[in-house]
Each structure stands twice: as C-alpha cells, then as structure tokens.
C-alpha cells in the first residue's frame, strides 16, 4: 500500500507531504513522485520554484530535480 501524499503549492514553493511508514519514504521516491506530478501538470510550475519533501515530524528537505 502506498503512503498517502499530497502536494502543497505556496507562492514559489512546492512541498510533498506524506503519511509515511516508520523508516520514512526515501527521497528518491519523493523525487520520482514530484517528477510524475510535474509531467501531469506542466502549467502548475515554472523555473523559479523550490521543491521540498516534508516528513510526518515536519522536517523539510529540499529536492534538486535536475
């Protein structure tokens, strides 16, 4: 079963927030999720956006998508 996830868009920031298992979701999976989302919604972002992964504890990690 996949963890529940959502993408929050605020100004020039996109944050992937999830309800993850104890070990957490690997950042490679979060990055893949973002890339798939961006393919589906290319009009939603531009080059000025920052991307973050946030775990259940509220810790944010910036993702570099290139």
UniProtKB/TrEMBL annotation:
It comes from the Bacteria. This is Uncharacterized protein.
């Amino acid at each position: 079963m996949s963890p529940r996830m959502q993408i929050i868009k605020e100004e020039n920031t996109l944050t992937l927030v999830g309800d993850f298992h104890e070990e957490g979701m690997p950042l490679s999976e979060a990055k893949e999720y973002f890339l798939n989302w961006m393919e589906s919604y290319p009009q939603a972002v531009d080059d000025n956006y920052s991307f973050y992964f946030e775990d259940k504890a509220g810790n944010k990690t910036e993702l570099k998508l290139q």
